[in-house]
Amino acid sequence: MSEENKEIKIPTPWRIVRYYVYAVATLVFLAVPWIVIDGHHLFLLSFDKMKLHLAFIQFDMQELYLMPFLLMLMFLGIFGMTVMGGRVFCGWVCPQTVFRVIYRDLIETKLLGMRKRIKNKQQEPDMSKPENKVKQVIAILLWTVLAFVASANFLWFFVPPEDFFAYLADFDNHWVLFGTLITTTAFLVYDIIFLKENFCVYVCPYSRIQSVLYDEHTVMALYDTHRGGDIYDKEHHKLFTKQKELQAFEPSAECTTCESCVTVCPTHIDIRKGLQLECINCLECVDACTTVMGKLGKKSLVTWSSDYEITNQKGKTKYFRPKILAYMGLLVGISIILGMMGSTKEHMLLNINKETRLYSTQLLPDGKVAVDNAYEFLLQNTQSESMEYYFEVIPPKEMEGKIFILRPDKAFTAVPGMKKKKIVVLRTTEILANDPRKDTVIPIVIRAYAIGHEDKIVVYRNSTFIFPKEDILKTAN
After folding, report:
1. In what order do the strands lie in the sheet with 387-394?
2. Which pLDDT belongs to residue 7?
3. 346 by DSSP, 3-state: which?
4. Residue 348 class from Cβ within 10 Å (0-12 exposed, 13-18 middle, 19+ buried)?
5. What confidence score (pLDDT) does residue 347 get?
6. Could you say which of 12, 163, 347, 426 is the most buried, measured as most Cβ atoms within 10 Å of its Cβ?
7. Are strands 302-305 and 220-223 parallel, antiparallel or unpaired?
8. Are 10 and 291 spatial neighbours (Cβ–Cβ below 8 Å)?
9. What is the topology classification, in CATH, of domain 348-476?
10. What is the SS3 assignment for 181?
11. How many C-beta atoms surround the C-beta of residue 122 within 10 A?
12. What are the phi and psi torsion angles at 429 (to 5°)?
């Protein structure tokens, strides 16, 4: 064998690397719902208990100002991945792709032998054989079990495992959960076994969005026409089916027309045709061409690169270009904002509404006039255990000690997750103002706290105390 045709070492296939990524992603998604510290989950969006758990911090639904930031992180992350690596999310992370690999490559090919080899994804199992019909039933049953687990795992992000199984046992009161589980499982069975990659091609909207995100530096699976030759014309009509025909037209063309890159494609496209919406960047075609060309001592004609480098041959791909840096900046900025907002979470919720009557006056036995302001306090205990709460009024410095809480006169208990309504009356027996024309609005601060946890479970709310004008006080006398 000549030096230039010497077989070169073939690197680890991208397919194997993807399998490792799939395994890690699966373990992460299975584990996250079970990670709990002090009753708080790593991530949980509970519609049942109206709670959001994020990084072991529990937020009430009234604190869902964090959700838009989480959604922005998710979408900007996916869009940023697309600008840099095309539909890399589809090929490397998307559950649809992972599930199809499990069913087609693991169950149908490796376990049951219905398909001859993983590298041939175009040839469907021969269902005229009786043994394949039996194997198909077994494959469907195996995937149904896995689909049930996947559906349960999905629901654990909304109904925690500690409640999930108890709810399933109580069907009469939780039939919606049971129905959702069955419906999701049925959809996964239909999607993975019957709809297949048609979901990626015709249903998923992501393939339509990606075209507006690409630029000439976007990395994707590309066929090098400069080396391999043009197999299709500009209208995507196939020109050659045999290597001799191709080389008669382009003597330097290196493509062997073996079509290994076509046979292995899960979405049934020919990468030599150019950029296509159906391509999910799984890089199976790169592996196939690398193997074939490697045996000929040449580099792959299908590579994971950009139009800038392969098609236009302008130079090296620029990964850290302004658009990518902008996405990175936005992601970092939103993450910082999310962290800052999450760190300032209040450990109890308190809304204060003043009653419609501004104040009331009362002549006391000692001759003083008491001025009362009534408020409706709506408090919610966001902790995982019952707590005792009480309040403190903080008036302006010159009025310290002159406004006090008349009732409630002692602490009260609030159970987790339940709203507690309390009528709070503030009183003063001092002359706080002498305005003959109008009532005086005095700014105050209400400090609410949990007994025994004053340093942590405490909130401050601004409010007002209305002191009557002079003639109202005289009338009370």
Report:
1. 412-414, 387-394, 440-450, 458-467
2. 62
3. coil
4. buried
5. 75
6. 426
7. antiparallel
8. yes
9. Immunoglobulin-like (2.60.40)
10. helix
11. 11
12. -115, 10
